[in-house]
């Protein structure tokens, strides 16, 4: 970190609504073709390390911290009590709980399987997630449906499956209303997360746009409580312009939560640290979010590399991810107030003037009056690169 010029202080990092997932820090390095490389660690160590780094919020799956068999039982509340104490002792807050509906074999046919018993179990799990969220003071619940889809065609009737999945989300919202009323508090924000491939061959809700259609389908009893948790890489995976996907969520008023990471288009879910692959695109994403007042939560949903110890995870991976994010956020602020970008943007918005003597609806005259329109686009793009590499602040390179 010193060789890289140091980092932000924990106090500065804590000013951002950045959350660290339990599963990201505890990731032992395994994958389909990878054996684990690190020992399992529990919430105590993860929360303590996040506090040291200055990651002020913590998120978790129900089963990251509670054994499946203990869910909803007394043992769960005993663990939740210990989590609450650990959070308080470290000055970290729980921001989000997500129901794991993909890993355990019970989800082999998905959370909206044909079997009513499995679907009842899915409802139990999301209701229990709502209870846990209220107990731990979280404001958000996330649902990545995971196995909502199929490997072989023909058995699943898609409209029926979607209706069954809606029943689970409805159960979560209805439980939330009850609990919030009983506690005299507010309801959670329920956030759907899409991923276009993995772990099924065919996914029923593969993109954030598909989820927007699902929210607006009329199948949800409380669509106003349900929004999106887009993940940067999940949008890139299907070939989207992430900024455009986020813009569609923003105009729908449904950008509730954002998983931040990086990776490559049309590849699998590599979950690389934010800004390591596409820093220019990330800068542009943050310009959009800052200019629309979206200030988080930003959830660090990435996988630290498969180092053989926790050293790299907590000394390099997490602090550098947070710091790249903050730097890009600051750069986005610079881009928003940059005089060159401002002037070029104003010129674009003013448009070219067709002479009074000419026909205002003449395509040729309009084209002539706007011949530098895309030149201005290029000026803005060039300026953004300058901001990214510090040239706007006088960083120079040889022009010889
Ligand atoms: C899983 C997925 C992530 C989701 C997690 C939330 S689970 O790791 O790949 O993108 O955010 O359930
Ligand atoms: Mn995610
Ligand atoms: Mn991912």
What do these coordinates show?
The protein is α/β, with parallel strands linked by helices. Helix content is 47%, strand content 8%. It has helices spanning 10-14, 22-25, 43-53, 62-65, 74-90, 116-136, 158-183, 208-215, 232-237, 242-251, 279-291, 311-337, 339-350, 363-369, 373-389; strands at residues 18-21, 57-61, 93-98, 140-143, 149-150, 189-192, 202-203, 226-228, 258-259, 298-299. Strands 8-6-4-3-2-1-10-9 form an 8-stranded parallel beta sheet. A two-stranded antiparallel sheet has the order 5-7. Helix 11 links the parallel strand 9 and strand 10 (298-299). Helix 11 crosses helix 12 (311-337) and helix 12 crosses helix 15 (373-389). The longest helix has 27 residues, at 311-337. It is globular, with a radius of gyration of 23 Å. The two termini are 33 Å apart. The model has no long low-confidence stretch (mean pLDDT 97). The protein binds 5-thio-alpha-D-glucopyranose and manganese (II) ion (2 copies). Residues 23, 61, 98, 142, 144, 193, 231, 259, 269, 301 line the site of 5-thio-alpha-D-glucopyranose (GLT).
